[in-house]
Predict the 3D structure of the following.
Amino acid sequence: MEDSNSPPDVIKARVIESRITELRAQIRAHNVAYYELEEPTIADADYDLISRELVNLELSHPEYELEDSPTNDVGSKASVLFSPVQHQVPMMSLDNAMSFDELDVWHERVSKSLGDVTSPRFVCELKFDGLAVSIRYEMGKLVQAATRGNGRIGEDVTANVSTIKDIPKVIGPHAPNVLEVRGEVYLPISRFKALNEEQIRKGESAYINPRNTASGSLRQKNSKVTASRGLSFWSYQLEEKSLELAMEYSSQTFEFLSALGLPVSPEIEFFDRFEEVKEFCKKWITNRHIPDYEIDGVVIKLDSLRDREKLGSTSRAPRWAIAFKFPPEERTTKLLSIEVSVGRTGRATPFAVLEPVFVGGSTVAMATLHNEDQVAYKNVRPGDVVFVRKAGDVIPEVLGPVLSQRSTTSDAWHFPKLCASCNHAFTRQAGDANTYCQNQLCPARIRQGISYFAGRTAMDIEGLGEQTVKLLVEEHVVEDVGDLFSLKENQLLNSKGTNQTSVDNLLTAIGAAKDRPLASVLIGLGIDHLGPSTAEMLARQFGNIDAIMQADAEAIESLEGIGPKIAESVVAFFCDPVQLTVVEKLRAAGVRLEEKVSEEEVFPVLQGKSVVVTGNLDNWFLSRDDAKKAIAARGGKSPGSVSAQTYVLVAGNGAGQSKLAKAESLSIPIIGEDAFRRLLQSGELET
Ligand code: IVH
């Protein structure tokens, strides 16, 4: 029965029809921007979302004319820049699976259509994020290369493709008379970074991502420009029926292509069980950042060429293949405004306030823009639609604007002249990328300094979050970190938003922090350039704060791992009367300013060694920080990432997959917590 609250069918139908019309128009416009103008107006993931919505609406409402829907197109018209090339065999697109459930549906459909009792064999390839080209060789010589275009007609990019080093101009030996190979032209990430560094040097704006840059580089009028970009190529398909007839499996195709000198990805794998296909997908979700090229999924195809024939294609995509798409790392969203935050050192950092967008596994509403030059380089303005990237646990990044959607009334952003927190003029020295608020009494700086002091890397005072600090500073209860330890119950109770319990808890936490190690105090004071391991070193070698305050730069610099920059910064810090007052307040309040005598003697058995820690080591250590301190105490370093210099990777519960994969790829030993304990004693790895 009709639900009396729902709108009548005619209205529903009209809403659906107008949504279909709207989606088709949007997708057509994005297609023109992407394929013809080479200036994408939407991130791939967002494009997939609206395409998906349209396909689903069309499937459930076949009554709306499908003929001219963009869901039937592969790409778009070829441009006028290049001559058209008719593809003998159309260049198709791929259907997407956005989840393992969707992959299962495809698997079931394929198995059913083949009607075999045994499951078919699959070939899994990486989905390279570049652009498809078809290259034709005649009598072993490269004679033509074309982009996909609309799938039937592409653009002649022979001259430009001929400049790509990976692509042989002559193939052989034993090249067939005619051979057409298809594959992906891409820009290696290292090349992309190098090109962007060049843009910075030239004072020009940033290239958005490797894919767009690859596409722009291939579609240049002047092939010298293409040559200078350093494009690469992976081949993945042979389009020559007479040849393929002699082959039965794609594995043979790959061997053949490879023997002719065409680049074939080493990451291709074949599986009989679909579970293994899914394992392959999972492995590459984890490893997606290891290769020097971007991948946005895994392409799963039937291995048997006969079975491919049997299943055939729809108008846009083969039924025998599917693209398993990785969770997106790039989305488009609106840049609402650009704000500036002032840190404890006075550094003023612009950041983007974004319309919240789900990307890279979390919702992003803010992204740093680093400094004034970066805003210019990224070429972004408030109100722009921007590309946002968040890859794994890397901080989110604004890549650049969708220029074609920029409002004609928008203005370039300028760094504010005054600090919003204290009204002092911002300053920027020649040769420095950073802008500063030099006012030591700036409330924002004081707040940030106190929060840093109370933070986990320093004094670890629970309950002293940013909001509480803000209140205490605004009400002038606390002016610097020295005031924290003499806070009285009534001062706190008078503050807004506090109650007896929160005040009791905070006072207890502050009391407990009085006994933190000297290194934590040194870190908390915020001495420029002084990091946790160097603070540890100072504390251990000098034993108490007075000895450090009296030491000259030479004495400090004589310590292993401490350079002149840190030494000078320490000396300058303790010459500053403002800082000396803080130290005296801490002393008067009973904060421990000397090293605890350690119970066991520790030898520098890890001197010069780099030990990376990942995951939780809670059988023996209180926290990962404690583990890092133990490494530092033995003269070692514990950087946050694995590199060729890493001595060993210590992996606890929930170890980072990318660190594990990186260590494996570099053949760096990986040990567990118990072996780590023994390493701390001996400095030697057990064999
Ligand atoms: S096979 C008929 N294999 O993905 C099958 N495509 O979304 C055509 N792509 O147009 C493609 N890596 O540009 C295939 N290993 C791979 C691929 C791949 C990237 C691209 C290609 C295609 C698009 C479809």
Q: What stands out?
A: Residues 9-36 form the longest helix (28 residues). DSSP finds 25 helices and 21 strands in the chain. Residues 92-94, 125, 127-128, 132, 184, 236-237, 299, 318, 321, 323 surround 2-(butylsulfanyl)adenosine (CB under 6 Å). The chain has a mean pLDDT of 91.
